[in-house]
Amino acid sequence: MIKSKIQILNRISSLLFVLTLLASCSKNVVYREYKSFEENQWPSKEKAVFEMDITDTQSLNNISLMIRHADGYPFSNIFLFVTTSYPDGAVKTDTMEVMLANDKGEWQGDGAGDIFDLKVPIKKNVRFPLSGHYKFEFTQAMDADPLPLIMDFGFEIEKTKAD
To answer: At 17, which helix (H) or strand (E)?
Structure first.
């Protein structure tokens, strides 16, 4: 019974993923990628890693995270460890909290059935300081391990409309 529900959730998630990509295609997107988790669980040892080469250091960019989760996700938030590696070898690590539900317990983002997609801007109007290879690593930092009902985690860099 539970396995069939997970299979249905996976099919719906895949369909939503494709529809989201088609609907959000934009010439301003510099980078967009999603990482999916087996059985809709994010183990704390599994990093969501996003790597790209940045050549444009003049344009302003918005950086966002995308989280796809099921309605039964047992928390209103998710804590993340974020490690950014810069082209010059510098590495910066930080902790971030992303709120998935408001104070009333209502899920944020777009919902279809019992699956919710949330796009969270984390930096606005930023320039990349260096040209070269960047790596962004995200690790879930919640007490639950694996973290249940997290289906996909995405990262997006988009040029601002002003450019």
So the answer is: helix 2-23
- What's at 104, amino acid-wise? K
Summarize pLDDT for 97-133 with one digit per residue, the tens: 999 999 999 999 999 889 999 999 999 999 999 999 9
CA distance 80 to 153: 11
Joined together, the tokens standing for residue 74 give 């047992």
Cα–Cα distance, 91 to 89 (Å, whole number): 6
pTM: 0.82
Give the mean model confidence (pLDDT) for residues 35-45: 97
Tell me whether residue 41 is exposed, middle or buried, using C-beta atoms within 10 angstroms of its C-beta: 0 to 12, 13 to 18, 19 or more.
middle
Domains of the chain: 2-159 (2.60.120)
Residues 147 and 64 sit within 8 Å (Cβ to Cβ):
no
Closest residue by Cα to residue 20 from 123, 109, 127: 109
Residues 6+ apart with CB under 8 A from 17: 34, 68, 152
Torsion, Cα 52 90 126 134, to 10 degrees, reads 0
Pairing mode, if any, of strands 150-159 and 61-70? antiparallel
Residue 79, phi then psi, degrees to nearest 5: -95, 140
Closest Cα to residue 51, out of 81, 85, 17, 88?
A: 85
